[in-house]
Fold these 3 entries.
Entry 1:
Amino acid sequence: MNTKKWFLLFAILILCIPSGYSQAKDVIRKVVIDAGHGGNDPGAIGAKSKEKDITLKMALQVGKLIKESCPDVEVYYTRTTDVFVPLNGRCQFANNKHADLFISIHCNSTTNKTARGVETYVMGLHKSESNLAVARKENAAMLLESDYQDNYSGFNPNSPESYVIFSLYSSAYLDHSVKLAAKVQNNLVNCTHFPDRKVQQAGFWVLHGVAMPSILIELGFISNPDEEAVLNNKDSQKAMATAIVNAFVSYKGQIEGTATEEVQSADSKDEKDKQDKAKQDSTQTAVPAKPKEESKPKEEAKPASTSKENTAGIHYKIQIYATKDNLSVTDKKFEGLSVSKHKDGDWWKYTVGDERKYSDAQKVQTNVKEKFPDAFMVAYKDGVKIPVSEARKFE
C-alpha cells in the first residue's frame, strides 16, 4: 500500500473514532492490563525464560494489587492464561470495555547481551532506530496471523514505510499517557535500580489501536543475564508490580483531583525534566492509601467559621509508606524520621508529622519527598479521615 493510501486510511480511522472517546476521562473506573505475547508467540527468549511467561505473571499481580488498593476500579485482562491474542483483538477488547486506561507489559531484548534498563513507551513517532527496533519487535506478533495483511490493512511491521501512518498520530490521550508513563518509569527505576532509559515514543500498533490513555512497559532486558534473573525472581516481580500500582494510584489521584495541591503542581511540570530529576536511591515500593477510603465529612462537621473551636480538631499527616507487613517504626527505611503507624484493613500505614496548619504539613511533605517521592498528605477532623480539600475549609 503506497504512502497516499496510508494517509487516507489513517484519516478515515481518526474520523471513525466514537465521539465518546474524544478525550481522556477525569475518572479512572476501568483498566485493561495487557500481558504481552502468549501461546505460540513466546516473545523475547532469554537464557532461562520466555517473555510471555514473565508478562503474564506481572499482569496478574498488577491487576490483583489494583483491585486491593482501589476497589472502585474494574480490572480486565487481555489474557489470563498462556494463549495467543492478536494485537487488534487486544485493542478491540479494551475499546469494547470502554476502558479508561490500557497498560501493556513487556520485556525488552536485543542481540547486545550487555544492554540494560527500564523504559516506558507512549504512542508516537519513533525518533531513533532503537525505538523503531522495539516497535518492530512488539508489532511482529501480527505476523503469526495467517491473514494479518487483511487484519491490519496491509501494514507490514518490518517495513519502515508502513510506519508513516504514525507520523500523523495526534492523540487526545497523549498528555495523560505521558503523565502515567513518567510515574511508572520513575517508580520502576527506583525499585529495580536498572538504568533509566526514560519515557519514549514509538509506533506500537497495540497503543495506536486503543481509544484511551495507554502505555507499554519494557520491564528490563531478558537478553541480559543479570536482568533476566531479576525479572524471574518472585520477590522482584512483586516489588515491580507494586511500583507500577503505586504509579497508577498516584496518577488516578492526580486525574481525579484527590491528590494534594503540591503534588498536582509538581506533576504539571515538564515530564521529561521530572524524569531527569528522579532520585535513584528511593525505597518507596508500597501501595499508597486508597483514595476511595476517604470518608465524607459528617453534616455537622461543616465549618461555620474560622474560630479556634472549629480548627482544633484538624490535623494533617504525611503518609510515606503502606504495606501488609507489620514493620517497626524504627525500621532502617524510616531512619531519621519520627514515624507513626496504624492499621487500615489489611494494610499497615506509616505517617510522619501531626500538623494543625496546611502550610506546615506542606513543609513536612517537601522534606520527606526526597526519600519517599510518592508521599502524600492526609487530613483528619476530630480523628476522622476527611479529604484535604475539606480540611482546608476550616482554616
Entry 2:
Amino acid sequence: MLVIGIAGGTGSGKTTVVNKIISSLPAGEVAVLPQDSYYRDLSALPMEERTKVNFDEPASIEWELLVKHLNELKAGKTIQMPTYSYLTCTRQAETIKVSPRDVVIVEGILVLTDPVLRNMLDVKVFVDADADERLIRVISRDCVERGRTPQAVIDRYQDVLKPMHSMYIEPTKRFADLIVPQGGANTVAINLLVDYIEARLKKASMSKK
C-alpha cells in the first residue's frame, strides 16, 4: 500500500489534484481519507459556541481516529469513515465504508502538521496557490456549499484563515517531497506524481512475484 498525504491552504486546489490522480489510475485503485471527515464532534456544545470553534488549527481534528483508521487499512481491514456536517458542526450518524486499496490518499489543509500521521506517509505533497486565488475559491465554495454570505467568508478569511495558514499550514511546506504550484492547473507536476505512483505500484507488484 502506498500512502500519500496531500496538504495545502484552503482553496489551493487539493481536491482537484486528488481527482486528477484518481482519474489517471485504474478504477478502484485509490481510497481517499479526507481530513475534514475527522473533525471533532461538537454536538455537546450549544450552536452559538460551535460557530466560534477554530476549524483551521490542528486541535480541531481527531488525529487519533484518523491514524487508527489508516493503520487498519494498512493491516488489510475495512473501516467505517465518519462523515461531518459543516452546517451543524457535528459528526453524522452515517459512515462511509472504505476498503484497503493499493493507494490511499489522506487529503486536507493540516495533513502535514501531525507528526504521527506524517511519519506514516510514503509521499508528502503540498499544493500551493496564490493567496488571492485561494480567497476567490473559498468565497465561491463557502457561499454555495456552506450557506455563508460573501462578507462573512471574507471576514473569516481575514480573522481566521489567513493567520492560521501562516501559523500552521505554510510552515508544513518544508516537509513536502513535492510542491505543486498553481494547484490543480499544474498538469506537469500532477503527471510527474502519477508517474511516480505508477512506478512504485509496478515495483511493489513485481516484488510480490
Entry 3:
Amino acid sequence: MTQKEAIIKVLEHYGGRAKLTDIYPHVIKMAEFKPDSDKKATIRTTLQRNPKYFRQSKGKKGCWELVSYQEEIASRDKRIKELEEENARLKSIKTEDAFVEKMLKETKKRFKHESERNKAVAVSQILAWAGREDASENLDEWLEGKEKPFIAVNGDYVVSKHVENEIDNVEAGGTGVNINKEED
C-alpha cells in the first residue's frame, strides 16, 4: 500500500481528521517505505505535497483532514458546538434543591404575617405532594413556631443555618452560615 493510500485509510478511520501523532503509527504499519528513511518526515511530506487530498485543520495544530470529508467535518463540528452549548445550558439550570430552598425562603418572607400564614399551608401541601416532605416539614415547623435549625455536615465542620434568621442575615450582607469545628 502506498503512503498516500495508507494516510487516506487512517484519516477515514478517524472520521476525516486526525492528529499527526495518531496518523504516524498506523501509516508506518500499513505503508511501504524506503529503507533507512525517516518515516515520520516522509508522512508529513506526503501530506504537504497532496493538497488535492489532504489539508491542515484550521485552528487545530498538528491535525490533518481529508479534503473530501469537509462537509462531514463541518457537520460534526457544528453538532459538537451545539452539544457543548446544550450541555452548558443544562448545567446552568438550577437544581431541585436550590429551587425548593428558594421556595421556602420566599414563602417565609412573603407570608410572615399571621393573617397570611394560611397561604404558606398551601405551599407546604404542594411540597408534600411533590415528594419534598423534608421541605414541607420545615415549613410546617416554621408555621408552628418550632422551626429547627438546618444542619449539614461538611467534612470536619458542621454548618448550621437557621433558615429565617440566616436568610435575613444574608440579605443584610452577612454570610448566612456559621461554621464551627466539630468536636470529637
